[in-house]
Amino acid sequence: MNNTELKELRVTAAKCRQKILRMCKAHKAGHLGGANSCIDIVTALYFHTMKVDPNNPELEDRDRFVLSAGHKCLAQYTALCQKGFFPEDLLDTYGCLNCRMPGHPDMKKLPGIEANTGALGHGLSIACGMALALRAKGLDSRVFTILGDGELAEGTNWEGAAIAHHYKLDNLTAIVDNNGLQIGGDVTRIMDFSPIRAHFEGFGWVVREIDGHDMAQIVQILDALPFEKGRPSLIIAKTIKGKGFSKAENVGKYHFWLPTPEEMELAEQENAAELEALENE
């Protein structure tokens, strides 16, 4: 990938962060921290890696994306919107009663959503089922799922990890958004699953580690998939909770954000400055 294409992806990610703020502003709340920590990866998936078509969301041989950490749906909603799956004004309905954009993804309400998620720990097993089904149909499509490091304490993750290795699901890639924080504080204090790499390698996965905000690294690692034929791939992405808003970065209380007008103004100013700098590079 050349520098112009990388710049375009970075600009797209910044525009997605802008839309995340728009939704938080409309609803006066939102899971900013995790959405901002994973949006660079989500952007690379939707705008570089995955085969998806906003004009045909049910395309049979499309790639599938499962956001296991469903509370980070702001990231997926913005990427789908930016990709053209639905009009921008729908963003302003986020979180409203009976809206199409609830606080966790709902596959019955919005095109491009592949699974209802938010009960943490289930996304990996759902993704395994999808990968098995695609293989049974003889399709070359791939399945991607993003897990939060805080949800690794859920036992269903490890059932999925075992299934993926047993059935040699090399069409499956899991990505851990390793930002180190969850709603109750530091992940390693609440339930320490480090070293994450060793745990997944023990289940037979091939593991790589990257900086989850370095778009060049993200693209390079996604282009290398699958890491090994006949084995599932795991990417551990080291990220910053609340990335893109200085007050929120690595601060646990911004896991779920109730913005004051002053905070929102500052966040919007910082995002606008970042976007302008990227566009002028």
Automatic annotation (TrEMBL):
Name under which the protein is recorded: Transketolase
Top-rank taxon: Bacteria
Keyword field: Thiamine pyrophosphate
Cofactor names: thiamine diphosphate
InterPro entries attached to this UniProt entry: THDP-binding (IPR029061), Transketolase_N (IPR005474)
Family, as annotated: Belongs to the transketolase family.
Domain spans labelled Transketolase N-terminal: 23-255
Pfam families the record matches: Transketolase_N (PF00456)
Cell membrane listed as a keyword: no
UniProt KW S-adenosyl-L-methionine keyword: no
